Every structure is written in C-alpha cells, then in structure tokens.
C-alpha cells in the first residue's frame, strides 16, 4: 500500500475581483467614435456603474487562479457511479469546432446543410445498429428528457389502440431516480418493484402487478447496483404478456457496447446518453443529448422531425437529406433537432473506434470495475456481491465504526486527491458509495485509488476524526451543503452603496 503523507494545506482566501479593483486601472482603451455622440436620456442613466477597475493581466491572473481550484476530468479521476465521467478525446472538440459545423444556422436552406444532415443520418443509423432498434429521434436534450419522450411514445401507442385504461408504469427500486419522475410527469401511476437478494427484479412482485392497466416497465439494465439482471428476458416476457411495453434506460450502455443489443433482449424503447457512453462533455449544466430508439411499431409516434433520405442517390449525385414527420408523432420536444454539437462529438467518437473499438470500451469498463470490486470488497461491505458490470456499490459504513458515514469517506478522498464517488445512491443500499472507473483509467490510477480507499477504511477505525474533519487539503473545507442549497447567494459581492445609485 502506498504510504500517504498528508500535510494540512493553508486556508486560501481569494479576494473577489471587486476587492482587487483600483481606481483608474483599465484593461482596454476604446478609440474615439467615428460617428457623432448621441445625447442619452438622463432618467435612464446611472451615475455610477459598479464595475471593477482592473488591468487585463489582473483579470487573467485572477480567473486562471480560480480555475486551478476546480477539479475536472482532464486533471483527475472521476469515479462517479451512474454518471460515466470518462475522458473526452480532444478530437471530438476539434471536429465540433470545424467552421462548416460550428457556423451553421438551423434555419438555413436545407440544400446548404446537407453535410450536417448526412452526419445526423449516419449517427441515427449507427445508434440503431448498436442497440438493435428500427427507428430513432435525436431531439431529446438529455437522458431524463429522452425518458420523458420514451414514456410519451409508450402512452401514445396505447391510446392509439383505444386502450385508455393503461395508466400504470412499473419502476424497479434499482432504477435511476428520473424514471419515476418522467412517468409521473406523463400522468401515469408509478408502482415500485423491489429487487431480490441478488439485485435482480423480484419476479413474483412483477407478476403481481402485471395486469391490463400496465403501460409498461422502465428497467435500467445494467441497473444502478452495476448488475446485469439475470432474468431480463423473463421480465420482458411478463410485461409483454400483460400487454405492456418495455422501456430500457440506456444510461448504462457503457457496459454493453458491441456485446448485447437491448432490442434483442426484448425492449421496445430505449434512450441513450450521448454525453455518457459516447464521450461528449457533460456536467455543470450540460448540454447533454438523449436520443430515443424504438421498435418499428412505435416509429410512427416519435417526435418530429427526423432526418431521412428524401431523394435516393442517382445519376452520380449523392442522396438528398431532409426532415420528415412521423405519421402519429407526439410532436416536437426540442428546438430544431436537438444539440447538434453533441451529435458531431458522438459521431466522431463512434467513427474513431469502429465496431471492435466500441466492444473494447465496454470490456475494459467492466474489467476495471471488477478489478476495483475485487480489491475493495474485503475492506468495504458490498451488499450485492457478484460479478458487476461497469460499476458497483459498496457501503461507506462499518459496524465497529458507527460514527463514520459515506459522506466522511467521500470528503476524505478529496484529501488524497480524488473526486468522490456517487454518494447515497441507489437508495436501496445504506450509506452507498457508487463507484464507476470507466475504461479510460489505467491500472496505475486504479491502484492509487484503491490505496487511498484502503487507507481511509483503516483511518475510519483508528483515526475517525480525520474523516470527520475532511477535507483539509482543499481550497475550502467541508461546507454546509444543505444550507448552501436552501440559502443561495448568487452574487458574491457588490459595493455597499450600490442600492443608492
């Protein structure tokens, strides 16, 4: 085990940019106007505009220094379970910034956007092939938005058949939290299905709820325990026999690329998270991308429009791409046709890897997760301890260290230079630590992470105050997160007399 030697860092009190201000300093000098000056209405003018006065170098150094306080995937390991925070290859950014893509406007004549439409069409074809489905929409802005669209499609399918008594959606207790939210937003009744002792859907509980009021079931597979449901085909059969549809939460597709197709398992609808599986940056507010794929019988209900070939290749001319509306569409769900920059990044990522490379992604993600699980299971209790997929869930608590919680483990990890894993999710694991290494981390990084986790497990028993006081080596110590969420301060500083000006 690595011999960690920690020294407490000095507390950093960074002045605000207003406090750095000095009267008369300026970062830019504007030339005299070459048009006559206009008289502005006095009643609309403030006597003083409370902006800081700084030179250019002051501003640059201030914000560069602040940026070093941030943790990013370019600077360190993100073991955030369920989030799939893997490294984003820079070639994705290069292609997204090509002028022909970056400078397009969605209202241009369609003849001038053929390159972009061809890219979107090819991405649609690849995403259908990877999942085994027949039709797709790229519109949804993120995973939860994709879930909402998928549920709307399922609901529209039943209503089109005049099967209006179907108002119930089944959600396993190991699902992503957005699943019940999107079902409820669609006006459906949500019924939770428990997990069995191996982390699978409880089949008896499922059979008890599978009746003629069933819209369907939303199943995250692999689930949020990081486990592939061993009975997934039987789950799909039970739901289908009751007349329901199976929704696949594809947020964890990073474990299945090139290995299993969700449509072949029995699913009818699924969303992708391009910003997870296909390496387009996410976090900090987005943007994300959540395309939805469906079987042929559901294609007519997808949001409009969808990119299609409107004129086939002929006489040596390339095909003409355009936008078409499904016959019974649920309507538009996003301005224009979604987050185009995310499509370019995902297209680049898939094209660079190819079929074999996509399978490698999942195989290494699963290998990395099981390596961590094997090395940590003796120090941390793993309630569903079997071969995992791309992530696993341990407990951040010990019977012989009752005052230690998962939050303490997470905060202490920051002292060792690692971003904490996901805490307190899924809810069916007490004091959950949800760990996902992704395929982009090498063995050296994983070993260093394990060493830190083992050291923290030892400290939990021998020096619990180290965990309670952590972090102590970060620019800021432990914050009151509840207070911060309830009492937002959106403006850090203004002159005291601002309100009188």
UniProtKB/TrEMBL annotation:
Residues annotated as carrying N6-(pyridoxal phosphate)lysine in the record are: 276
Keyword Oxidoreductase included in the entry's annotation = yes
An example molecular function term from Gene Ontology annotations: pyridoxal phosphate binding
- What's its EC? 1.4.4.2
Any keyword Oxidoreductase?
yes
Q: Glycine dehydrogenase C-terminal domain location, by residue?
A: 362-461
Name of the top EC class for this enzyme: oxidoreductase
Q: Which GO terms describe its biological process?
A: glycine decarboxylation via glycine cleavage system
Which reaction does this chain catalyze?
A: N(6)-[(R)-lipoyl]-L-lysyl-[glycine-cleavage complex H protein] + glycine + H(+) = N(6)-[(R)-S(8)-aminomethyldihydrolipoyl]-L-lysyl-[glycine-cleavage complex H protein] + CO2
* Superkingdom as given in the UniProt entry: Bacteria
Q: Which Pfam families does the UniProt entry name for this protein?
A: Aminotran_5, GcvP2_C
Domain Aminotransferase class V per the UniProt entry, residue ranges: 169-283
Provide the cofactor list for this protein.
Answer: pyridoxal 5'-phosphate
UniProt keyword annotations, A-Z: Oxidoreductase, Pyridoxal phosphate
Q: Which GO terms describe its cellular component?
A: cytosol; glycine cleavage complex
Entry-linked InterPro entries = Aminotrans_V_dom (IPR000192), GcvPB (IPR023012), GDC-P_C (IPR049316), GDC_P (IPR020581), PyrdxlP-dep_Trfase (IPR015424), PyrdxlP-dep_Trfase_major (IPR015421), PyrdxlP-dep_Trfase_small (IPR015422)
Family of this protein: Belongs to the GcvP family. C-terminal subunit subfamily.
How would you summarize the oligomeric state and partners of this protein? The glycine cleavage system is composed of four proteins: P, T, L and H. In this organism, the P 'protein' is a heterodimer of two subunits.
Question: Which function does this protein serve?
Answer: The glycine cleavage system catalyzes the degradation of glycine. The P protein binds the alpha-amino group of glycine through its pyridoxal phosphate cofactor; CO(2) is released and the remaining methylamine moiety is then transferred to the lipoamide cofactor of the H protein.
Record's protein name: Probable glycine dehydrogenase (decarboxylating) subunit 2
Q: Which organism is it from?
A: Candidatus Desulfolinea nitratireducens
In the UniProt record, the gene name given for this protein reads gcvPB
């Amino acid at each position: 085990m690595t011999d960690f030697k920690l020294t407490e860092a000095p507390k950093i009190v960074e002045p605000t940019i207003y406090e750095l201000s000095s009267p008369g300093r300026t970062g830019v000098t504007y030339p005299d106007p070459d048009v006559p000056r206009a008289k502005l209405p006095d009643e609309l003018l403030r006597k003083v505009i409370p902006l800081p006065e700084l030179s250019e170098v002051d501003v640059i150094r201030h914000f560069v220094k602040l940026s070093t306080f941030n943790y990013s995937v370019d600077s360190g390991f993100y073991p955030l379970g369920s989030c799939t925070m893997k490294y984003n290859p820079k070639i994705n950014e290069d292609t997204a910034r090509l002028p022909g893509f970056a400078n397009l406007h969605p209202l241009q004549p369609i003849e001038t956007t053929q390159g972009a439409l061809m890219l979107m069409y090819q991405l649609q074809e690849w995403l259908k092939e990877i999942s085994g489905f027949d039709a797709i929409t790229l519109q949804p802005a993120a995973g939860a938005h994709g879930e909402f669209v998928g549920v709307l499609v399922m609901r529209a399918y039943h209503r089109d058949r005049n099967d209006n008594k179907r108002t119930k959606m089944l959600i396993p207790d190991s699902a992503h939290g957005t699943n019940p939210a999107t079902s409820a937003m669609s006006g459906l009744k949500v019924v939770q299905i428990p997990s069995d002792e191996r982390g699978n859907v409880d089949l008896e509980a499922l059979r008890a709820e599978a009746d003629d009021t069933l819209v369907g079931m939303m199943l995250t597979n692999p689930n949020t325990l990081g486990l592939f449901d061993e009975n997934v085909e039987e789950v799909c059969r039970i739901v289908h026999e009751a007349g329901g549809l199976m929704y696949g939460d594809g947020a964890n597709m990073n474990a299945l690329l090139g290995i299993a197709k969700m449509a072949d398992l029995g699913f009818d609808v699924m969303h992708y998270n391009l910003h997870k599986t296909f390496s387009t940056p996410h976090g900090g507010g987005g943007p994300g991308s959540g395309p939805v794929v469906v079987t042929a019988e559901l294609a007519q209900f997808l949001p409009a429009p969808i990119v299609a070939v409107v004129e086939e290749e002929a006489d040596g001319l390339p095909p003409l791409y355009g936008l078409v509306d499904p016959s019974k569409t649920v309507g538009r769900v996003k301005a224009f046709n979604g987050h185009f920059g995310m499509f370019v990044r995902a297209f680049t990522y898939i094209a660079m890897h190819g079929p074999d490379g996509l399978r490698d992604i999942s195989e290494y993600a699963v290998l990395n997760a099981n390596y961590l699980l094997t090395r940590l299971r003796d120090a941390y209790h793993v309630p569903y301890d079997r071969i995992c997929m791309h992530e696993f869930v341990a407990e951040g608590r010990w019977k012989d260290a009752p005052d230690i919680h998962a939050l303490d483990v997470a905060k202490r990890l920051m002292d060792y230079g690692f971003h904490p894993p996901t805490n307190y999710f899924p809810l069916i694991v007490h004091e959950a630590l949800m760990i996902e290494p992704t395929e982009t981390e090498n063995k050296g990084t994983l070993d260093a992470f394990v060493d830190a986790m083992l050291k923290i497990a030892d400290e939990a028993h021998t020096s619990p105050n180290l965990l309670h006081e952590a972090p102590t080596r970060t620019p800021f110590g432990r914050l009151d997160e509840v207070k911060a969420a309830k009492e937002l301060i959106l403006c850090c500083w203004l002159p005291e007399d601002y309100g009188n000006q």
